UniProtKB/TrEMBL annotation, chains A, B, C, D:
Protein localization: Cytoplasm
Coiled coil location: none
Species in which this protein is naturally found: Cudoniella acicularis
Record's keyword terms, sorted: Amino-acid biosynthesis, Cytoplasm, Lyase, Metal-binding, Methionine biosynthesis, Zinc
Primary location group: cytoplasm
Gene name in the database record: MDE1
EC main group: lyase
Annotated protein name in UniProt: Methylthioribulose-1-phosphate dehydratase
SMART domains for the chain: Aldolase_II
Record lineage: Eukaryota, Fungi, Dikarya, Ascomycota, Pezizomycotina
């Protein structure tokens, strides 16, 4: 707030919050990320979303837009500290004629419970297929597990822990069941975070995935690494190869 | 018609109809969409097409051009109100040395019967494979059905209805049989629209798909969501997973 | 030759033959096409090639270059009328420190035997896989056949014939066996052209495909349509679907 | 060193080593290559790496960066002749706040043992899947072999040998076992180089591949050709086709 105004004082819907010539400003970065995610097939047909937190401020892609065409002016902004009532969301800046994303409470969960700096939600087909394959299993249908693949080293060891997973560590991503209304996922997402405190991602059955990280860099590269592992796991399944192995 | 001329008065093949510095003008938007569709594999080898309606005016991609190289000057324009004889198409603007698309009567069906603002025709391989798989079934070979996948929420509930499909709703896309001449599909396309009044798309066996929407935004995002679901459904088939499930 | 010089008179390796500000000049078009083909996976790792004929002049991509980085200065030029001895190729223009493509006699066969204006050679994996699948068959291993797919209409009916194939027509692409030296394919390519005078393409077993057309437009769109059909045919094979059907 | 300074004399971390207006300078070329490799899925989620040698100087991509966003300023530089103690790496230029790549000793092995000018490390899924399929075999699990595919001609015959492999030659790529710490691969990589002196690549089980060549051109096109062959081999496996055949 270089202007010295409080949010409430600044006129015209706080548009200064999303205007910056810095390419790394969240309001510029979210559209750039979404263009990239569209080419990766993660946010097809207005699906998915992305949010960045800068201290108390949260920047959010809106609902229902073509993600590869998103502009800074389409970004919602809210202050975490003002969200005292989960039923009554308060926005500092709302783009005219757009709707806020139903993902908002899920992004907020990653920010408040895990101190994340960025959270990405994709409808990646590989993620959906993993949840469908797990659904067929008699047991363990709520956990994706893979080990002994180098790309696993792309993940941090967990919340407030130093360093990354090792090659022999098993990466575990919990799966929660989908709900008709996306905001209703919040409770089970938070439960999964509590049950698997070190995970940086939660799969949503027949829907997609939420991935976060301390920074945009970490959220994005963890999301890429996961998608790589999901695609690899689907190909392994087609070729009759196991996701888990007991290499020393 | 800001110039105040009627179409008939304006000289030189009504080229003013396709000249605009507005990137959202249909004559600029159709080439941009077609470039994008070419990269998605939807309009390979001059296949497929796109049309946008602006009130009474209809803008159409021509036949037989490389879709990723299309220019505004290649666009046909007609007035819906002038198409009284389906055997005698009247164009306000015809590009020199090109041929009108055989898809024209099918696009017009979406505009007149469903009040669509945009109609997209693709030769997507996923769409073709879905129709080939359905053809193998003893029953139900003329309807693609899928449910309990989040991306289904990318579709409107139907013609003149408010809101979108829900997660548990079954998306149904009718399939019509292909004909040697594309314009001969019109009758069966219209029959499918009558039989499934809420559908926003019709699959054409061994050929591709027609998808429409009230706006360019809706037609394009519904087309993307469908292609996502078709690709997912093919992968599900390879992995032995069912398209329909009875999750509550 | 707007300068009025003969090829022999013009100095400096006839570089004027490959210098033009016209984006449609063959020396500009070949690099643009090769960039596009590289993104399609057709000319990976210096594989494949492209040639355009303008009356008596033939423009050729060189051997061994990274196709997505090719420049006009890399283009070879020869005059068809000067190629009287197939063992002694005469070039009007040779780029310094490059080697002519081994595909040259094959491109020339398409130009002289079929009056083609453009010939494209790809190492498309779909094309290679088709030839491998055919090799497993006890009979008919030298002919790819598919019918009743709309994209077949993307092909002309044949040499010196008017119009395109119809939906119910069977597209037939002959397969020739690969040889250690690419120029040694010339004889069997010409035999395949004689045996299938209406084909616009010849598959080379375990190698790729040659596709031509009367114009750059036709060669490129036929090459795209074929690649679409090959990819579709591989997916059909994985899903247990037949390439030929007897729909009326 | 056009400035006439020795490395030690030049101030400010030898930044002049990575500043050049020449697009072919290693410090410009590595970021351009990495952008391309990211789109090919080779360096997803900060995985993989690339190094170029210019006489005694070695330019290296750093650890842990988003490869499609890399800049010249992110490049490490070292002098081969100064690396007398493998436990104590000496860098001429280290980017502030980045870490050197664990791949460094592996790149150096290619430079010193094989006089390579460029070495590329990818996490290509096709490469990983090949190593997983080989792992299932009772024998020969440490060697990928394929023959009678044209793309094999994209590889040189071997270290200090003239010419390229022929169509009937068998391409052999050794596989080494992965280790928790990437630098610990060095010994087995060097052993594989000794056992297969003519190979230009070594697969790393469940990890990826290292590919080199005398020049950037050769390393890159060999890496592309290998990835093509790995993808083809996976598709062949799905279709029940053998990687080796005894065509004369």
């Amino acid at each position: 707030m270089a202007t010295g105004k409080t949010y409430e004082e600044s006129a015209e819907n706080n548009d200064h919050l999303i205007r910056s010539s810095d390419s790394q400003h969240p309001a510029n970065l979210i559209p750039e990320l979404c263009r990239k995610f569209w080419t990766l097939g993660w946010v097809t047909g207005t699906g998915g979303g992305t949010s960045i937190r800068d201290n108390d401020l949260v920047y959010l892609a809106p609902s229902g837009v073509q993600k590869e065409l998103m502009k800074s002016e389409d970004i919602y902004v809210l202050a975490l500290s003002q969200q005292t009532d989960p039923k009554k969301r308060i926005y500092l800046r709302s783009p005219p004629s757009l709707k806020p994303s139903q993902c908002t409470p899920l992004f907020i969960a990653a920010f408040t419970k895990r101190n994340a700096g960025c959270c990405i939600h994709t409808h990646s087909q590989w993620a959906v297929l993993i949840t469908l394959l797990l659904e067929q299993l008699p047991s363990n249908a709520t956990l994706f597990e893979i080990n002994n693949i180098e790309q696993i080293k792309g993940f941090g060891r967990g919340y407030q822990k130093q360093g990354n997973l090792g090659y022999h560590d098993t990466l575990r991503i919990p799966v929660i069941e989908n709900t008709p209304h996306e905001e209703d996922l919040t409770e089970s997402l938070e439960e999964a975070m509590d049950k698997y405190p070190d995970t940086y991602a939660v799969l949503v059955r027949r829907h997609g995935i939420y991935v976060w990280g301390e920074t945009v860099h970490k959220a994005k590269t963890q999301c890429e690494s996961l998608d790589y592992l999901f695609q690899l796991a689907i190909e392994m399944k087609k070729l009759g190869l196991s996701w888990l192995s007991d290499i020393a």
